[in-house]
Each structure stands twice: as C-alpha cells, then as structure tokens.
Amino acid sequence: MIDETVAEIRAMRTHSTSAVAVKATQALAELLDRDYRTVDEFERDLEHNAGVLRRSNPSHAALHNAMREVERTIVGEPTSVEDAKQLLEETIERVVDDIETSKAAAAANAAERINDGDTLLVHDYSTTVLESIEAAAMAGAHLTVYVTEARPRTLGRKTARALAAMDRVDARMVVDSAMGYALRDCDRVLLGITCITGGTYYNRVGTFPLVVTARELGVPVTAVGSGAKTIEEFRFENEFRDAVEVMREPVEGVTIENPSYDATPVGMIDTVITDDGVRY
C-alpha cells in the first residue's frame, strides 16, 4: 500500500492536496500487518516510511504536517510493539479525521461569503473549493462558475464535471488564456491552497497570472483551505513534470519547462479562509 501510494502521489493521480495527505496517512496502516521484534524496530520503520511518503511530494504542506504529526505522536511513546500498533491505528484515524474536518470547516467558512447570484472563477481542481460552492448552492444560492482548463493537465475539466452535477450551479469553461474575458463578469476568484509559507502563497501553475489579472480588473481573490496548509518552517519545492504533458513530440532545440506550481505574494490575495475563519 505504501509503495503504491508513493507512486500515485508522484504521478499526481490524486489531484487534491488534502486527499493526498489522507491517502498517505492511511497507507501507514500497512505497518500494522508487519512483524516487529522490538519497539525500536517498529519506530525506525515508521519514520522511514513516513519520510518516504513525505518526500513523495515535498510541495504539499498538508502531507508534510500529517506525516510529522504521526511521527510526533508515536515515536518514543509505546512500551511494546502491541501498544505501538494500537497507537498507530488510533493516530491514523485521528489525523485523517482532523484533515477532513478542517477541510469541511474551511469550506463552510468560505460558503458563508458566497452570495446568491454571484459569478465565480475557479482554477485547477480543489475539493475544498468544490465543497464551498456546493455548500453555498445547497443553502439556496444560484451561482455561475467559470472554470479554467488548467493546462497542461486540464484538471479544470474534472472540476467542470463536478460543478455540472450541482443543482443551482451554471458551470462554464474557458481556456486559461481567456481568464481576462471571464473575469470581467466575475464577482470573485475562489482558489484552493497548496501551501502558504514565508509570505508566499503556492498553488497550481497559472495561479499567479490569474491573481495579477484579477487585481488589475478589481476582482477580489479568495484562497480557501485547511489551516494545516499554512506553515512557517517549510521549504517549498516546486515540481517540474514531464515535458510530454506540454508537447507529445519533442522539437530539436526547444527546452520545455513544465512547473507544477506558481508562487504568489500572499499580500496579493484579498482573503485567506481556513477552518479557523478568515486569516487575512
């Protein structure tokens, strides 16, 4: 389970950072079925596998926090292998619940600030953003939501399909370069959060030009996500993905760069909403 989860995270087959943290935490349950002679042997294996999962995507603050929380809770505490396994099982359940509860609370806080008749623009794929919109719609708000394609992986299409299934939501898709066209009709941009650290907001590539364009047009930008994604002592590492996502057949003399994330000064974001409420 751990090896498969690492491969899935590295391949970015799970598109939500919160979902990545949940899957990684649940993958540690594999250790419950392994045999250990001593507590030290168990703890070394736990630290090794938590580290492997953490490094599978060093850009995800929620993943980093989840693995660190498991390690902090367990290492040095149990007095027997049986106790260690029981503590791991309990910790996995608690950490997963904390992640999902925090995400739901952040979405609920954001939904309160979405008004009936609003036109929103969203980018990429964020389960927290989707949950915010769905909560607002279920509360009676009629919304128009523009979705950018989010190239090169076009994850916006996945978002559009989810929005199309929601009552009272009129989903519309535009290519990334048409963001200026769509923003002129929008009341707000609603974005997810990959990480906020050191005064910088990191999110899927395409976020920075979207934020700059929104500010130029006077459209407020809101970022929503679990408070666990706001972390001070964390070195964000961008990921550069395979060039084939951009161009299937290479061209001689052309170097293709395919970064996964954008860095945006957090001061350019009008509102940051977490499970604690409005942070900024």
Automatic annotation (TrEMBL):
One of its GO terms (molecular function) is translation initiation factor activity. Keywords: Initiation factor, Protein biosynthesis. Coiled coil: none annotated. Pfam families: IF-2B. It comes from the Archaea. Belongs to the eIF-2B alpha/beta/delta subunits family. This is Translation initiation factor eIF-2B subunit delta.
